[in-house]
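Running log. JK asked me to keep both predictions on one page so they can be read side by side. First protein, sequence followed by its tokens:
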Amino acid sequence: MAKEQLPIYKIEDFNSRKKNAKFFYLCRLAEHLQEHKFIQRPHKHDFYIVMLVTRGTGIHTIDFRDYAVQAGIVFFLTPGQVHSWQLSDDADGFILFFTQEYYLERKKLYQYPYFATLSDNTPLPVSEAEQEQLLQIQNHMQQEYQHQLVMKDDVLRDYLDILLVKLLRTYNAQGYSTASSPAALPELLQLQRLIDLHYKEHQPVSFYAEILHTSAKHLNEVCKKSLGKTTTQLIQERLVLEAKRLLIHSALSIKQVAAEIGFFEVSYFFRFFKKHTGQTPEQFRQEQSIG
């Protein structure tokens, strides 16, 4: 094969020295970068990430979009996203990972819009005062994380709750809300999860509406009002994104890429891809390879 398969990392890949550490990870960014140099190359992960940069510069690439790295920026990533970075040697801050299972007791991930991949992964700028608050929470978490104390995971989840809520307040205060109203957000995030599960099957909007106990018309109205896109457009964008990932990060042929995402007529896949990107699959692959 011309290319290695895109790696999908688990938390234990970073927690090899900790027993049973499969669900949560916390580290200073500088230390993390030094110990895990393999993460500079494009990869996926099966957990959520929150990363605060307090020092340094560079570029963080998330699913073919480049974001500038600088002090006072928070990045959020969800399972399955492809990312890589090129950071300066002085980069620092903190980075934490957690799985959905770890946070399941709280059952609140649907209320955090910065984990919504239906919209752009725009990094969140935070003020110096907000950075200080986040670092204080991180310090408390680090103390719990490093010691085997009674109800350690309960305390870590409590601090994680506080951290995510603090970030939510900053996110909302800066007008970054994904949904047109708070009531629409859980529905949009559940739709995101369903699209991730079923997009390869090319299911109609009515399929998603039925699972969400609503109508296709209502679902379209919510998507249009909140994101400026129809539900069908969101499904198609997910198909295009996966096609791009496979074209660049796998050795699959164009025909195999098409079949992988549910297109069994290659000519139809060609037309679909070009309609949404302005390029044929071969042109996109060649351009990205050169770049």
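And the second, directly underneath as requested:
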Amino acid sequence: MTTASTPKGERRKHALIEAAAALLIEGGFDAVRHRAVAERAELPLASTTYYFDSIDDLIVEALEFHGRAELARGRAVLEDMDACPKEPDALVELVLDQLLGPRARENDAEAILLRYERLVATARRPYLRPLTLELGADLRALLMDTFARSNATVDEARLEQLIALVDGAVVNALIEVNPDPRAAARRMLLDALA
């Protein structure tokens, strides 16, 4: 990757990463193309190849940028709480926010579908595996902290079961064209934590 050694270069590179991340979130991996990223960032097309050796390099940076931003948001929400929720409903909502992203005002099901499409698509991109594993470990640490602060006894094996339960509920709801996959995951998680 070419180094952006000037402040202007750093700003441009960051704008490209943000644009690619937004496209990734809105349309998945197929949406991240040189022209689309340059247009979104309002930069010349050549800037994508100047700052990144390949579209794969740009995707890695975009995925890391988005993943770190989500983790930081989740950590900030946890740190800003006066006390972690002890009631199951509030705890489940917090966990779902960390696993599925905060509830969108509109098109929540579409946002969740795109999130799961991204997760599944990373399996076809071996160059993303190290980053995906790293971000996953950081998310699990955040979830463990969330449960610990809420005085919920959850070990690593139980956490894996709860994540799998949410994933399964979401995927089944999406297959059934359920307009609210988050509600399906909420029901399953509440039952599991009862």
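Observation for JK regarding the second prediction: DSSP finds nine helices and no strands in the chain.
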